[in-house]
Amino acid sequence: MTISEEIPIDSHKSEDIILSVKNLKTYYPIYGGILKRKIGEVRAVDGVSFNLYKRETLGLVGESGCGKTTIGNTILNLVPATAGEIWYKGKRIDNNFTKEYRKKIQMVFQDPDSSLNPRWKVVNIVGEPLRLLMGMKKRREIRKRVLELLETVSMKNEHLDRYPHEFSGGQKQRIVIARALACNPEIIILDEPTSALDVSVQAQILNLLKDLQKEFDLSYLFITHDLSVIQHIGDRIEVMYLGKFVEGGNIEEVFYNSTHPYTKALLSARPTFDPESRINRVILKGDVPSPINPPSGCAFHPRCPEVSDHEGCGLRNPVKIDLGGDHYMYCNPMRSEKKSYEGMEYISD
């Protein structure tokens, strides 16, 4: 195990990178006073970097309010980036998000009810991107293409002329997925697509997403707070806390060899049928700090159960520690200069 300020070289090839985010920051200004001047800012995303590869599913997990959805909105240019860079296939898109990029990067929102127009029929909802982005004008051509998309997500011809309120939650999510597929995208950002669904329907939607990924060579950025979901569908995972990444790696590395205390706490909170696992439950003290005024040094140190084992947590920003393979975490050095940690050597600078 070694400490490094640089992003470790992973096992993927650079030509397989389809989306690259570098030191992304997204702050929301706070205005106050009679003149409505800026008095502060919410640091929703505070310097994150990651790569998304072709045909893979990258999971973003963390507590509510940690900045997961803001990353997705910033990539789609729905929210302006404060700093950092976003690259798609070697071209920077954060300062020039054109219609062509809108076709190739689509999003499935968390609540299908709020993303479907209740006054429109399904044929108009799914057909809208065909008219606006793909340039289709003929109604018969649009109707034929919409039917093909609905059949792709296991819906039928009879659903074309129905309104959103006539469908169940799972069917609404299928409609949203069909709309996302309309422009033949290469990347789909999935913002908790199963959080409002029953467990059995969740499994159907996840299996559908996996089948679509194989059929259309899609890359997924999967935003969720449900660790079991990302364990089922994901290839790699990034764990967020208060706008920053704290640990990342492939699914096996993070789930079966978690190292950061926050990741351990998240994994210990998963529902389980094993009564023995309750003994190892990690209970975090206190509440999540405000992103308006985050703690100095490591943002997690006021709640960290291992803070006494590390040095300078409240003073220094954590450094990136290579744990081998794609696995890494952000943490401060142990108090001892050299210490065996989970079977690996921890070497301080």
Walk me through the structure:
The protein has one domain (2-347): Rossmann fold. The model is unreliable at 3-9 and 337-349 (pLDDT under 50). The strands form three sheets. A nine-stranded mixed sheet has the order 1-12-13-11-10-4-9-8-7, with helices on both faces. The protein has a four-stranded antiparallel sheet with strand order 3-2-5-6. With 349 residues, it is of the alpha/beta class. Helices cover 27% and strands 28% of the residues.
Question: What is shown here, in short?
Answer:
The chain is 27% helix and 28% strand. The protein has 10 helices and 15 strands.
Low-confidence region ranges? 3-9, 337-349
Strand percent estimate: 25-35%
Strands, total number: 15
Terminal-residue CA separation: 12 Å
Largest sheet strand order: 1-12-13-11-10-4-9-8-7
* CATH topology name: Rossmann fold
**Overall pLDDT confidence:** 87
Number of domains: 1
Q: Gyration radius, to the nearest Å?
A: 22 Å
N-to-C SSE series? EEEEHEEHEHHHHEHEHEEHHEEEE
Q: Sheet bearing the most strands, described? A: 9 strands, mixed
Shape: globular
Tally of individual helices: 10
Descriptive keywords:
349 residues; Rossmann fold; nine-stranded mixed β-sheet; 27% helix; disordered N terminus; disordered C terminus
Q: Topology of this protein?
A:
Blueprint: E1 2-4, E2 17-32, E3 37-53, E4 57-61, H1 68-75, E5 83-88, E6 91-92, H2 99-104, E7 105-108, H3 112-115, H4 122-132, H5 139-152, H6 169-181, E8 187-191, H7 199-216, E9 219-224, H8 227-233, E10 236-241, E11 244-250, H9 251-256, H10 261-268, E12 319-324, E13 327-331, E14 338-341, E15 344-347
Parallel strand pairs: 4-9, 4-10, 7-8, 8-9
Antiparallel strand pairs: 1-12, 2-3, 2-5, 5-6, 10-11, 11-13, 12-13, 14-15
Helix pairs in contact: 4-5, 4-6, 5-6
